[in-house]
DNA sequence: ATGAAAGCGCTAACAA
DNA sequence: TTGTTAGCGCTTTCAT
């Protein structure tokens, strides 16, 4: 039988409430009593039952991570960081994989809601309105999506796309393709907008191809189009797609970077290992995981004790944290980009090969941003 | 305020126990009452509080996954499969990352023990005796480690290593290196034993290099040794190491597979994407995750209701499931292996290039094995 | 500083 | 078939 608070009380000759206090409010108990109780607890191997505790405090000390696809290499570092951060604050984390399915996502959120103090929605696929509705049931932090009035952790892929396009223009490319990601992705929209602006500013033409599935196959499938379109460079929605594109071009006999330069987004581990090594926009996924957990727990701490049980946020007059954090990205220049037809002219934006002087943005240096709405 | 069983009772004009029964023993309640209760529950958005339920039933309907390193690409497919399988049985899963640290592992197991009905230990790093002790506190299933009397899910990497060595011998290699994995890894020991036997049988000499960290760097670091040792082929503990080795050899001007053939183990997604594509022993990680969850929940179901609370297994006379499941592996031949100096002689064990007739072992076809002890 | 008592939301005998 | 009652392990007033 598992040892309960009562066993400890009996062993140390005090009332169970004293034992309880020893753990949840140590300063309220006589130091001598405390050590005695602690000793007995240690002895018996007592661990408070969190379910029982949750029942009365309304705090489970659990959080939930809703992930679009664990097998997508973008997510594991985020999960790892989030889990580690949560644990350091004595929280445990449920991980749930939605398989990129919006309705599975909704179901999961509901199933978990009662068991957690808050949820991290990572690259959610459901509609904004559903998310807003959910946020009334359970504290939420959204990663990679911007919603008015909700705490979000965003990666500045817009900035990244700008750096990427500048890099390509500097190398002498004037015809650039953009391989778009999934419809309705906030990240995708940001990339497109910034890439377009940067291309315009640099006197280059941007051809948007897509939307595409955010996978290797999405990239392979576009290789033929890329070749025919006559572009000399391409920016892909993510690394997986970029790697697929390189593969596809290779199969068509098109050399990367000699004939076409390719840039990805994410800097997944994989990107250092392919041949050629991928030039890419590094997104601070670990920092995002940590930050998101911090924001969630902050929210949790802020809530008045009265508003207990899940769905606490619904209580009248409760101040919500709605900070939106924008994490910086950086361009990592490797071997998949090279000189284009207009090389040597204009200002030398072309970085030298190798791990050149790429923009170094400290991932631990978030920029808080006033939240403004963006549809979907 | 969250809606409780009492709200539903009030709304449908029955006692709370009837509502309770409607959910946990529907057959005991009048169909008409049932639909009414269900309707009210639906209306109010009622969801049973699992913590409260757990408190009395002793079943949390949660399981825990203890993972050595989520960022290691070997694990995500396993996690994904396990989570999906668990959910289909209405279980939620805690994921905890130990960072390959045995003591973190122990701490985590204890922290989680009270909150789960069972734990999956994936490639555990702690000692056998500790695991055995733990298994008395909480139902356990161990993946990638064999212990007497404990349910284990094993991948037959021994068979895989044999296939790999046979393949190399068939290609005409007679001097083969084995890049060992971490000390104390069951997988490592199996690979070494089988590879040695297969080499002996094939008239080849096997040189063991290591132990090495199971990472890309582990492989890079051995490149120089491999070159100097004069072998013409190498089998690595895992794909990451194999990829690192290829990288390292490349840096030394040694061509793979022309001068040295390389084989990995695991068949992580990455391995299809490197150049050259990696020949490797595919381990059925998803099947392992599914199977392990099944075994755990089976155990859970078997336990008599009397033995409630966690640590149920400790009750006297409780029959434990101790089946050990061995999952088949297969050799996937890609581009990192080619003819060796003795090619053309002997029987043509050399498979043709391409996705040839490699051994097809159905991952859904486990072989149950009588458990026999293996230290560490 | 400690004890007594109530009760979190739910299930499980037992009665009716 | 339904209601009554007790209580899972814990925290938290309220007394003392």
Task: Characterise this structure.
The structure is a homodimer of 376-residue chains. In chain A, helix 1 (5-12) crosses helix 2, helix 1 (5-12) crosses helix 3 (31-44) and helix 10 crosses helix 11 (239-251). The radius of gyration of chain A is 25 Å and the shape is elongated. In chain A, the strands form two sheets. A seven-stranded mixed sheet of chain A has the order 2-1-3-4-5-11-13, sandwiched between helices. In chain A, strands 7-6-8-9-10-12 form a six-stranded mixed sheet, sandwiched between helices. The first copy, chain A, has three domains: 5-57, Orthogonal Bundle (434 Repressor (Amino-terminal Domain)); 62-154 and 286-321, 3-Layer(aba) Sandwich (Rossmann fold), CATH 3.40.50; 157-284 and 327-368, Rossmann fold (3-Layer(aba) Sandwich). The model of chain A is unreliable at 304-319 and 346-376 (pLDDT under 50). The first copy, chain A, is an alpha/beta fold. The first copy, chain A, is built from twelve helices and 13 strands. At the A-B interface, helix 4, helix 5, strand 2 and helix 6 of A face helix 4, helix 5, strand 2 and helix 6 of B. The first copy, chain A, binds a DNA duplex (16 and 16 nucleotides) through helix 2 and helix 4. Chains A, B: One of its GO terms (molecular function) is DNA-binding transcription factor activity. Chains A, B: Residues 3-57 form the HTH lacI-type domain. Chains A, B: It comes from Micromonospora nigra.
């Amino acid at each position: 039988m598992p040892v309960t608070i009562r066993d400890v009380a009996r062993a140390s000759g005090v009332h169970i409430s004293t034992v309880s206090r020893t753990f949840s409010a140590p300063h309220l108990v006589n130091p001598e009593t405390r050590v005695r109780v602690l000793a007995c607890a240690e002895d018996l191997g007592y661990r408070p039952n969190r379910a029982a505790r949750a029942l009365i405090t309304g705090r489970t000390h659990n959080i939930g991570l809703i992930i679009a696809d664990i097998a997508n290499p973008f997510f594991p570092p985020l999960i790892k960081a989030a889990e580690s951060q949560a644990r350091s604050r004595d929280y445990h984390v449920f991980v749930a994989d939605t398989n990129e399915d919006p309705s599975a996502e909704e179901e999961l959120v509901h199933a978990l809601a009662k068991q957690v103090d808050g949820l991290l929605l990572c690259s959610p696929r459901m509609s904004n309105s559903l998310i807003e509705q959910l946020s009334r049931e359970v504290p939420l932090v959204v990663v990679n999506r911007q919603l008015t009035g909700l705490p979000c952790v965003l990666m500045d892929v817009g900035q990244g796309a700008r750096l990427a396009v500048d890099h390509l223009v500097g190398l002498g490319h004037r015809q650039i393709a953009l391989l778009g990601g999934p419809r309705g992705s906030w990240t995708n929209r940001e990339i497109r907008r910034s890439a377009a602006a940067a291309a315009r500013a640099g006197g280059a033409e941007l051809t948007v191809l897509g939307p595409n599935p955010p996978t290797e196959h999405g990239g392979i499938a576009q290789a033929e189009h890329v070749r025919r379109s006559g572009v000399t460079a391409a920016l892909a929605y993510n690394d997986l797609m970029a790697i697929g594109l390189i593969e596809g071009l290779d199969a068509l006999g098109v050399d990367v970077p000699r004939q076409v330069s390719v840039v990805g987004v994410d800097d997944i581990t994989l990107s250092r290992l392919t041949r050629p090594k991928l030039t890419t926009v590094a997104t601070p996924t670990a920092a995002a995981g940590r930050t998101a957990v911090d924001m969630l727990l902050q929210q949790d701490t802020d809530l008045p004790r009265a508003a207990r049980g899940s769905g606490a946020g619904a209580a009248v007059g409760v101040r919500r944290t709605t900070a939106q954090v924008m994490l910086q990205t950086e361009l990592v220049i490797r071997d998949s980009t090279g000189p284009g037809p207009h090389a040597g002219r204009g200002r030398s934006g072309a970085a030298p090969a190798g791990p050149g002087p790429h923009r170094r943005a400290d991932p631990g240096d978030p920029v808080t941003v006033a939240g403004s709405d963006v549809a979907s």
